[in-house]
From TrEMBL, chain A:
Primary site of residence: cytoplasm
Family label: Belongs to the RecF family.
Highest taxon above the source species: Bacteria
Keyword vocabulary terms for this entry: ATP-binding, Cytoplasm, DNA damage, DNA repair, DNA replication, DNA-binding, Nucleotide-binding, SOS response
Residue span(s) of domain RecF/RecN/SMC N-terminal: 2-366
Cellular localisation: Cytoplasm
Function: The RecF protein is involved in DNA metabolism; it is required for DNA replication and normal SOS inducibility. RecF binds preferentially to single-stranded, linear DNA. It also seems to bind ATP.
Binding site for ATP: G30, A31, N32, G33, Q34, G35, K36, T37
Protein name (Swiss-Prot/TrEMBL): DNA replication and repair protein RecF
Species for this entry: Streptoalloteichus tenebrarius (strain ATCC 17920 / DSM 40477 / JCM 4838 / CBS 697.72 / NBRC 16177 / NCIMB 11028 / NRRL B-12390 / A12253. 1 / ISP 5477) (Streptomyces tenebrarius)
Automatic annotation (TrEMBL), chain B:
CDD domains hit by this protein: TOPRIM_recR (cd01025)
Function description: May play a role in DNA repair. It seems to be involved in an RecBC-independent recombinational process of DNA repair. It may act with RecF and RecO.
Keywords recorded for this protein, A-Z: DNA damage, DNA recombination, DNA repair, Metal-binding, Zinc, Zinc-finger
Protein's name in the database: Recombination protein RecR
InterPro entries tied to this protein: DNA_Rcmb_RecR, Hlx-hairpin-Hlx_DNA-bd_motif, Rcmb_RecR, Rcmb_RecR_Znf, TOPRIM_dom, TOPRIM_RecR
Any one Pfam family match given in the protein's UniProt record, by short name: RecR_ZnF
Family: Belongs to the RecR family.
Toprim domain location: 79-175
Zn-finger (C4-type) residues: 56-71
Length: 391, 198
């Protein structure tokens, strides 16, 4: 697939921008702060309904404007779809496909698939587990958009159950001190209900993540070997809060596919086991929100042990591995490389350029053209003073 | 901040569901500029609903009398009770013209984030009703979202102990994550006629 056209209004620094693209490589060149990343961020937003830089929508709207609009024409297997998103912070976004409103913005997921590699990705290696869970879930949604709903449902149940654990814990402690402990019985009865729902939605999310990691792991290993052949081999592994209760082989390449019903039963068991601690602490201790994607170099965890160069290579390998996986699925995504060549040495540049050249479309941003490997300089755009000009 | 009563009005309006600070301000200034007669009419209607409208003793729906129109209607089948979250859901189900039984309005759904547990809902009243009236089927028509589903699951557990009672849930097909009242008549009607035992 490729992006044929991008138009933004009041998005980030852009009052208005209008850019036509072609398949193959395109490079956006401009000094720092001219708005290159803002443009590819808009594309990323259409693909994931989120930004790779900020967690909320407010910074995406131009200062002084009340809403941002992103319009993009995407060509997939010869068929063109026009996606329009109106982003209004604090309210639900509105979306249209081919000028017809869709019930929920979520309905545009899957029309544009992007894999975006950016300097922020170093956090995939060095950041909290939440970064890596977010990475997996985003890829999951790119693979199958319905997981946006699964994840949304899980998060809602998790919030409700956590609130209940807190109030039940408070009531319990008050009761122990000789008070009435009002509401505790009701809380506990409904806790069973929330356990059941958490296990159901959690199992669906967990199974999908396990299968994803099993499929992704070989691609990441190969991508890492490609960008850093001199380094120790890289591998990834899913670590579940189920611990030893996770069936053997789940999440491993060549292992059995994860069975949702089995995982639901395991989660329910585990929830029963840890309930006293959960009530004590008022937090939900079991479920995919507590899981981790382990990144391993040789025998050692990458986090805390990898050098700066190795961390970069690992982050890159996670993105290139994602790209190859989506491709293997038969869903060729648009590859976006935001300001990353300057950070890489010659070998890594070459290797990245090699993968990028095979993509149906690759969009590159750079401060100076010299940063971009020659073979990737296809269509060139100059970004300056609030304008994008094809040169 | 505006002076005295104007700000009070904005604050009060802002506490209404679905009205943010900007809308509250807009409505307040609209009222300030409105004809006194218009404002008086609004004032009277507000007063009348608070004084004249109450909740049905049996089903919890809004009513002008002790028992609502539906509970008084002898043609409605008392053996089938449709459980909904809010009075507006009664209207939504009525619009389908598919349902000839009676209702029970819970007054919300399980929602720990807002401090709503079973004791804050009209669940005890529902159990009492089933124990004393000749109810043979309970249709769980809570919203197809997280809170509504949890409430339905909870009710299934509570209703298990009534011998011979059949408990059903609306068929899937309702837009998930939604609100019953937003489902169109056709979809809701189909969900109702395709209900399954749970
Ligand atoms: N919401 C916003 N409103 C106005 N300007 C913004 C907004 N968000 C970011 N900017 C501006 O955008 C510029 C950064 O754009 P960016 O795309 O990151 O630049 P680069 O070309 O280096 O990738 C900064 O000057 C920043 O002030
Ligand atoms: Mg940039
Ligand atoms: Zn009634």
């Amino acid at each position: 697939m490729y992006v044929r056209h991008l138009q933004v209004t009041d998005f980030r620094s852009w009052a208005h921008a209008d850019v036509a693209f072609e398949p193959g490589p395109s490079v956006l060149v401009g000094a720092n702060g001219q708005g290159k990343t803002n443009l590819v961020e808009a594309l990323g937003y259409v693909a994931t309904l989120g930004s790779h830089r900020v967690a909320t929508d407010a910074p995406l709207v131009r200062h002084g404007a009340s809403r941002a609009i992103v319009r993009t024409a995407v060509v997939n297997a010869g068929r063109e779809l026009l996606v329009e998103l109106e982003v209004t912070p604090g309210r639900s976004n509105r979306a249209r496909v081919n000028r017809a409103p869709v019930p929920r913005p979520r309905d545009v997921l899957g029309i544009l698939r992007t894999v975006l590699f950016a300097p922020e990705d170093l956090a995939l290696v060095r950041g909290d587990p939440g970064e890596r869970r977010g990475f997996l879930d985003e890829l999951l949604v790119l693979r199958a958009p319905r997981f946006a709903g699964v994840r949304g449902d899980y998060e809602r149940v998790l919030k409700q159950r956590s609130a209940l654990l807190k109030s039940a814990g408070v009531a319990r402690r008050a009761g122990r001190r000789g008070g009435e402990g009002t509401g505790e019985a009701g809380d506990i009865r409904t806790l069973d209900v929330w356990d059941g729902h958490l296990a159901r939605h959690g199992a669906e999310l967990l199974a999908a993540r396990l299968d994803l990691v099993a499929d992704l792991a070989p691609h990441v290993g190969a991508a890492y070997a490609g960008v850093a052949p001199e380094s120790r081999p890289a591998s990834i592994a899913y670590r579940s809060s189920l611990g030893g209760a996770l069936p053997e082989g789940y999440g491993q390449p060549g292992g059995p596919r994860a069975d949702v019903a089995t995982l639901e039963a395991a989660l329910l068991d585990e929830l029963g086991r840890v309930r006293p601690q959960e009530l004590e602490r008022g937090v939900c201790l079991v479920g995919p929100h507590r899981d981790e994607l382990d990144l391993v170099l040789g025998e050692a965890p990458a986090k805390g042990y990898a050098s700066h160069g190795e961390s970069w290579s690992f982050a890159l390998a996670l993105r290139l591995g994602s790209f190859e996986l989506l491709r293997a699925d038969g869903a060729e995504p648009v590859l976006v490389l935001d300001d990353v060549f300057a950070e890489l040495d010659r070998r890594r540049r070459r290797s990245l350029a090699g993968v990028a050249l095979g993509a149906e479309q690759v969009l590159v941003t750079a401060a100076v053209p010299e940063d971009v490997p020659e073979e990737l300089v296809g269509a060139r755009y100059e970004v300056r003073d609030g304008e994008v000009r094809r040169v | 901040m505006y002076e005295g009563p104007v700000q009070d009005l904005i604050d009060e309006l802002g506490r209404l569901p679905g009205i943010g600070p900007k809308s509250a301000q807009r409505i307040a200034f609209h009222l300030l500029a409105a004809e006194p007669a218009d404002v008086t009419r609004l004032q009277e209607v507000l007063q009348r609903v608070k004084e004249g409208v109450r909740f049905c003793d049996v089903c919890g729906n809004v009513s002008e009398e002790e028992r609502c129109r539906i509970c008084r209607d002898a043609r409605r089948d008392p053996t089938v009770v449709c459980v909904v979250e809010e009075p507006k859901d009664v209207l939504a189900v009525e619009r389908t013209r598919e349902f000839k039984g009676r209702y029970h309005v819970l007054g919300g759904a399980l929602d720990p984030l807002s401090g709503v547990g079973p004791d804050q809902l009209r669940i005890r009243e529902l159990l009492a009703r089933i124990g004393s009236e000749d109810v043979r089927e309970v249709i769980l028509a809570t919203d197809p979202n997280t809170e509504g589903e949890a409430t339905a699951t909870y009710l299934v557990r509570m209703l298990r102990d009534f011998p011979g009672l059949s408990v059903t849930r609306l068929a899937s097909g309702l837009p998930m994550g939604g609100d019953l009242e937003f489902a169109d008549e056709l979809t809701l009607g189909r969900a109702l006629s395709g209900r399954r035992a749970v």
